[in-house]
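Support case: user asked for a sample of complex input and structure output to validate their parser. Sending the pair below.
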Amino acid sequence: MLFSVFMLAIRSIQRNLLRSFLTILGIVIGVSAVITMVTLGNGATQAVRAQISSLGSNLLLIRLGQRQGPGGGSSGIPQFKEADAISIIDEIGGIASVAPEGRAAVTVIGNGRNWATSVVGSTNPWFSIGNWTLASGRGFEEEEQTAGAAVCIIGETVRREIYGGTTGQTGLGEQLRIKQFSCSVVGILLSKGQGGMGFDQDDTVVVPLHTLQRRVTGTRTVPMLLVSMEDGTDSARVKRSLGELLRERRKLAESDDDNFNILDTQQIAEALSSTTKVMTTLLGAVAAVSLLVGGIGIMNIMLVSVTERTREIGLRLAIGALEREVLLQFLIEAVVLSALGGLIGIVIATAASWGLATIMSVPYLFNPGINLLSLLFSAGIGVVFGYFPARRAAQMNPIEALRHE
Amino acid sequence: MSEHAYLIQLTAVTKRYGEGASELMALNGIDLTIKAGEFVAIMGPSGSGKSTAMNILGCLDTPTSGKYLFKGTHVETLSRDQRARLRRRFLGFVFQGFNLLARTSAQENVELPLLYRGDSSAVRLAAAKKALAAVGLAGWEHHTPAELSGGQQQRVAIARAIVTQPAVVLADEPTGNLDTLRSREIMDLLVGLNRDQGITVLMVTHEPDMAAYAHRIVRFVDGGIASDEMNPHPVSGTASTIEHAPVEHA
């Protein structure tokens, strides 16, 4: 019985293919919008997490300027000295290593090609703090660091753009020109892969700190200190001690505000992923509204359909259809329509979110939960918005329905 | 058994529409009995109550007062769904406007009443094929109403009415939309069903030519029965133009 009513519903959808398609368009758009938004949002959250965790865990970044406001507020503030890094290691417990970091945007030339990248000047701990490993070659030697030797270690992107070829095959031992000096490539960093959101961590050249200071920036200070803590260290305590130590070393008076700030990567990760989560929820909610509009569209068309098919309903009732059979037929019709819309929406959403994820370079994460939820929700919309028209059909007086023109 | 002597027994049936000043007595206490196997034509001018009577006879409507005994069942006491069950078991309907489902094959149109009875698809297929053959439309199963002439459409409608092997076929102006030739074909078909399969036929018409096929003619005037007489010489169906495949009775 249920099956034959189901078949009736299917046939009546088949008889009105174009209208059926237009009816479900709202649901199709709603479902695909919801799924695409949520999938991309999840992908973005994942990308942010991956990016932060690839910076290194248990990591504190000490930067110039107030915590509030963009980095532009750092001009005129004295930079950090190498001695600051040494005193942090010496005076604060629970610190694994400290690396001062200087950075400059440069165009590097080698092998007859040039490439715009950023050059980082730091010390050996920089590699372990940033979770970097060498694909080939070696790290900096002690005397190269103190003397500021013309050696460099390059990221995979730079290697590929300058020397070409496959990983580990080219680049090592070559000369690379950075501004006015040439350095020899002593090591190649293992690729961390696309960091996500268009940020490529492999696009970098690393030189000893003194090399950068003497040959590129011409300063003896650095704008940033990277501090890695030992596992299980209370980061709040370390931050407090760091703050006190740096205020003292930078000779800030009681009344002065900090002219540096300490960022915890864990905090950044949480802040960024909670931001993307809020965005995901908002976009999903906006998309859900379109799903609701789609449901109202279904009700509208079902009402039109019931009116238009009054004679058909009259006939069905006359030849002995029970009230609940007519109700069920129209209800199933609405549910099949909206569930079909949901299915098509899922297919479109899968294609769209995969494509958009590739364009936006965030990972594509198939989310079975949201797909199932959307399907069930769209079927539910069919029940809710199909019930009223279906009941109207079922309660028709067969005599008047048959007489309807 | 005496109670069941009649297939249909209307006793003092009235039907009132509206209230107060706009009150209209469509039927003012009619008595009518019909035996199984009769072919009755119901005639009368519009507003005479013949359609109201037909609706009550077809269990589509209930009388305001009076009794309607159909096969021993008091129809006036039945609920909407109970009357629907009665219709799907014992009654077949043929309408002036055919009322076929558009864009639906003849086969599927005829299967429709069986669908509501819950018959399997094999049973439906066989029964609908047989019913279509009985109205001379073997081979037309897959045509949609738009591809059929008016006469053919009405024959599909008759096939749909008889596919459930009903006790009574109620035909409301079945030839109203057809020309004389097609009308005669339809009448031949109804006469044949009545004669060969023993189906009781109740037919509303205002064409004396068509009423002449019936064995009995009931005339309605002003909500009452004006005359109820036997037709001594009913036009017999020629049936020669249409091939009748036998449909057994359950």
